[in-house]
Design goal:
The structure holds two protein chains of two kinds. Chain A is α/β, with parallel strands linked by helices. Chain A has helices at residues 49-56, 79-89, 105-115, 120-133, 149-161, 179-196, 207-210, and strands at 5-16, 23-34, 38-42, 64-69, 72-73, 90-93, 167-171, 199-204, 215-220, 223-229. Chain A is built from seven helices and ten strands. The two termini of chain A are 17 Å apart. In chain B, 57% of the residues lie in helices and 17% in strands. Chain B has a six-stranded mixed beta barrel. Chain B contains 13 helices and ten strands. Classes of the chains: A alpha/beta, B alpha+beta.
């Protein structure tokens, strides 16, 4: 893999609170992710994996350390600049799907394109295409409440993809799903990674799910405890 | 982006249609009262203006005493006028076109089985000229009738209807109190004045007849003066005042024992009442708009809390703070503008009904309508800003975690 480093974390700490009650959620993390990688961050709850995800996703800012995203130092960006970075380069998939209620699948997928100012017709075309990629174009006009959990997560994936992001961040994407549906979702992420070359960073605490990734990061107490290639990745 | 914000806002508003309507009720009531009041007020002002026009904008009335606006000439102890004073005013004030002496009382007028308590007025043909009365049937007085004080009279339309129905009164003999007299003419109706006084409810006799047969004295209670076209009313009033002081021997520094009124004063008094009412209701409307604005702020704060997660999602997928601010601000503005539109329609409806009821013209003022609309939008901006800013400042991680 000769791709340049795409995500570079260098001595990242994230401390919540101050003084006696301060919690070091991240305690000096060094991590480099190259374009096109599929990595899984694992660890027990409280190990700091979600905090790491928020920092990587530019939702949160590290207390200290350097974070370069595609060569740009994120620590120096304003709130709005980070929003623009998320808008154009990052797609999110959450454990709880986080679709807008009473809003059709199509409109949910369109949402990121509204903010990037795409005209309506182009937006709907792109949203339908994204829904087709996750096999849900027939459900485009359904509300989230009319969809199963797996279908909702696929809509969420379509929403993450619609803006052609460089990286998709998936935070416990199968946490609310049964095993069979979980496998479908992970197969889908896998295919995206393999066929479209989308970099994927996934947080999970399930070993079964992690084995779909090429590289496994194990976290304990805000530190990276292991970082290894996954030879068995399908 | 703005179009999207508008579409989103409209969706959000109609998703909770009942709640939205209750929220904007304050604005609706505020705007509706302003529109209704101003429109009806405008109508009655126009009505007053047209009444004054009918009476003659260039008319001056001279009465004894200083309390004409309150009790009329009957309450005063000041000496009455005479026909001589009337003729002197006409002769010595150049601006006077016509001056008519008037005396009047209220008396029962009887014809057959019908009777009506009416104004009985003693004057002569000069009054018809000065006050612009026209004959609908029959004729005015003849000089001989005026001089000799003959028992003839001219009736107004209201009295005609009360005594004769649709029949022709000319030639009939009516009784005014104990006095019989023959009807020689009928005046063309002027209708009700602005505040309901019936101008047609009277019978007119020659002044000499009135003095001798009805009043039993030779007093003239008021002078009804019309000013020449092009002459200044104010100048005429000053000249008349000076002459009256001289005729009534009022020394320098002493107060007038008479008043010179012009129709503008009546108009001012009437529009003054309208203005006070409009002012009061505008104050109520302002309070209502304020309360309406607070209602909108309240519901927007509730909405921001309810949709915290939605805001988190939007921030995560790349909405900037200002995008979220715009969304919620636009929603508040559209909400209050909607209230404004409903209020304007309701206000115009009320004004139409009110104008019909008060029998004044319905004259909506586009300026006031636009102003109300603009003001309701302004209320939306002012009271929507704080909730919108709160939404925009949410932390995306916290917001996403919100249940």
């Amino acid at each position: 893999m000769a791709d340049p480093p795409f995500i570079e974390l260098e001595g990242i700490t994230r401390v919540y609170g101050t003084g006696e009650v301060a919690v070091r959620a991240l305690d000096g993390i060094n991590l480099t992710v190259r374009a096109g990688e599929f990595i899984a961050i694992m660890g027990p709850s409280g190990s700091g994996k979600s905090t790491a995800m928020n920092v990587i996703g530019c939702l949160d800012r590290p207390t200290s350390g350097h974070y370069r995203f595609a060569g740009v130092e994120v620590a120096g960006l304003t709130r709005d600049q980070r929003a623009l970075l998320r808008r154009h380069y990052i797609g999110f998939v959450f454990q709880g799907y986080n679709l807008l209620p009473r809003t059709s699948a199509l409109q949910n997928v369109e949402l990121p394109l509204i903010y990037s100012g795409r005209p309506r017709a182009a937006r709907q075309r792109a949203a339908l295409e994204a829904l087709r990629r996750v096999g849900l174009e027939a459900r485009a006009l359904h509300d989230p409440s009319q969809l199963s959990g797996g279908q909702q997560q696929r809509v969420a994936i379509a929403r993450a993809l619609v803006g052609d992001p460089k990286v998709v961040l998936a935070d416990e994407p199968t946490g609310n799903l049964d095993t069979k549906t979980s496998v479908e979702i992970l197969d889908m992420l896998r295919r995206l990674n393999r066929e479209a070359g989308v970099t994927i960073v996934m947080v999970t605490h399930e070993e079964d799910m992690a084995r779909y990734a090429d590289r496994l990061i194990g976290m304990v107490d805000g530190r990276i405890a292991r970082d290894e290639q996954n030879r068995e990745a399908a | 982006m703005l179009i999207e914000a508008v579409r989103l806002a409209v969706q959000a508003i109609f998703r909770n249609a009942l709640r939205s309507f209750l929220t904007v009720l304050g604005i609706v009531i505020g705007v509706a009262s302003v529109i209704a009041m101003v429109t009806v007020g405008q109508g009655s002002t126009e009505q007053v203006a047209s009444d004054v026009e009918k009476l003659g904008a260039n008319v001056v009335i001279v009465v004894p005493g200083q309390d004409a606006m309150r009790g009329g000439p009957h309450g005063t102890t000041a000496p009455m006028f005479s026909t001589r004073i009337n003729d002197t005013v006409k002769a010595r004030v150049a601006a006077v076109a016509v001056s008519a002496p008037i005396s009047q009382t209220r008396e029962r007028v009887i014809f057959g089985n019908a009777n009506r308590l009416s104004d009985v007025v003693g004057t002569d043909n000069r009054y018809f000229e000065a006050a612009r009365w026209e004959v609908a049937a029959g004729r005015l007085f003849e000089p001989g009738e005026i001089q000799a004080g003959r028992a003839v009279c001219i009736v107004g339309e209201t009295l005609r209807q009360a005594l004769f129905g649709a029949g022709d009164p000319v030639g009939a003999s009516v009784r005014i109190g104990a006095v019989s007299c023959r009807v020689i003419g009928l005046l063309r109706s002027k209708g009700a004045s602005t505040f309901g006084a019936d101008q047609d409810d009277f019978v007119i006799l020659p002044l000499a007849t009135f003095h001798r047969r009805i009043a039993g004295n030779a007093d003239v209670q008021s002078l009804f003066v019309s000013v020449r076209d092009g002459a200044s009313i104010d100048a005429a009033r000053e000249d008349i005042t000076a002459l009256m002081r001289e005729l009534r021997r009022i020394g320098p520094g002493e107060e007038d024992d008479f008043e010179v009124l012009d129709t503008r004063q009546f108009a001012l008094m009437l529009t003054g009442i309208t203005d006070v009412l409009t002012g009061l209701l505008s104050a109520v409307a302002a309070v209502s708009l304020l309360v309406g604005g607070i209602g909108i702020m309240n519901i927007m704060l509730v909405s921001v809390t309810e949709r915290t997660r939605e805001i988190g999602i939007r921030l995560a997928i790349g909405a900037r703070a200002r995008d979220v601010l715009t969304q919620f601000l636009v929603e508040a503005i559209i909400l209050s503008m909607l209230g404004g539109v409903i209020g304007i329609l309701m206000g115009l409806g009320l004004a139409l009904a009110g104008a019909r009821w008060l029998a004044v013209p319905f004259s909506p003022d586009p300026g006031v309508v636009l102003l109300s609309f603009g003001f309701s939008a302004f209320v939306g901006i002012v009271f929507g800003f704080f909730p919108a800013r709160r939404a925009a400042r949410l932390d995306p991680i916290e917001a996403l975690r919100h249940e």
